[in-house]
Design brief:
Length: 135
């Protein structure tokens, strides 16, 4: 059973994560960008950090190139401290090139850092993840 600490705003954090998952699977890049802070930075595996315009271009390219289907997504831990929160997760998904090709399965774990913005909305400000070997 995931260890979810019972603190205020856990439901708000889970709602943002649900929106992220839906946006990834539907390929809705505008929805995805709407849940990111203006200074969001991603630290993807085997790559340099992505932020600002480079992050947005990278996300657009990914959504244009791949169709994603979630096979598993589990929240492992959430902690909310004032206007910051972290969310630890593990995932498994399939990615299929939109232009045709072989479907790949990937699994991994990661962490989101979220910040409550001046407008009161929670947004993802940092994300780091890496792959697990498939067993």
């Amino acid at each position: 059973m995931p260890r979810l600490k019972q603190k205020p705003n856990i439901e708000d954090i889970l709602a943002i994560i649900a929106r992220e998952k839906t946006a990834v699977e539907s390929g809705d890049i505008l929805e995805y960008l709407s849940i990111l802070s203006d200074d969001a930075q991603f630290l993807p595996p085997d790559s340099f950090p992505k932020d600002n315009g480079e992050l947005r271009t990278w996300l657009h390219n990914f959504a244009d190139q791949y169709s994603i289907k979630w096979l598993d997504f589990t929240s492992l831990e959430i902690e909310v401290i004032d206007n910051l929160a972290y969310h630890v997760y593990c995932y498994r998904w399939s990615s299929t090139p939109r232009q045709g090709g072989r479907t790949n399965i990937a699994a991994g774990k990661g962490i989101h850092i979220l910040r409550k913005e001046h407008d009161g909305a929670w947004r993802i400000t940092r994300e780091i993840w890496n792959s697990n070997p498939l067993s």
